[in-house]
Design a protein that fits this description.
Number of strands: 10
Strand order of the largest sheet: 6-5-4-1-9-10
Helix content: under 10%
Number of domains: 1
Radius of gyration: 15 Å
Shape: globular
Order of helices and strands: EEEEEEEEEE
Number of helices: 0
Distance between the termini: 24 Å
Length: about 140
């Protein structure tokens, strides 16, 4: 499962959580979560209410992650509206927490494998992909 969480991108302050939907501690407080398990054909969307995760309707308009085995690059496409309560401004930079997890086949419990915080520049839909070194 991959969790993509972001604090409230360029919008009014909302409730935040310091643990992911699986209960593990996150590297920073977040307000939104988008998850897709490898066997699913949809994205789960959640937001935080009073410090707890509340499930929203399945996310539409997202594209399944594309994996390039030669470069190791994974490219998901998730609408900005899934990570904010209001409008988001082109050109702003927002933190995005990405967490990769695996499921124990015996207990069915999800456990975080790795997590990273990225600083993402929000661009308009017509902007070509930006490539470069991640630091």
């Amino acid at each position: 499962m991959a969790n993509a969480s972001s604090p409230n991108a360029s919008a009014a302050r909302v409730s935040e959580a310091t643990t992911g939907i699986d209960g593990e501690t996150l590297s920073r407080p977040v307000s939104f979560l988008v998850a897709r398990r490898s066997g699913d054909n949809h994205y789960l969307a959640c937001h935080v209410v009073n410090g707890a995760w509340a499930e929203d309707a399945d996310l539409t308009g997202a594209i399944a992650p594309q994996w390039d085995p030669t470069t190791g690059r994974v490219e998901p496409a998730i609408p900005r509206s899934a990570l904010a309560t209001g409008t988001t401004a082109d050109g702003t930079t927002e933190p995005l927490v990405v967490e990769l997890e695996h499921q124990n086949p015996t207990t069915q419990a999800w456990t975080a494998d790795s997590s990273m915080t990225l600083r993402c520049r929000l661009t308009s839909a017509g902007t070509p992909p930006l490539y470069g070194n991640v630091r």
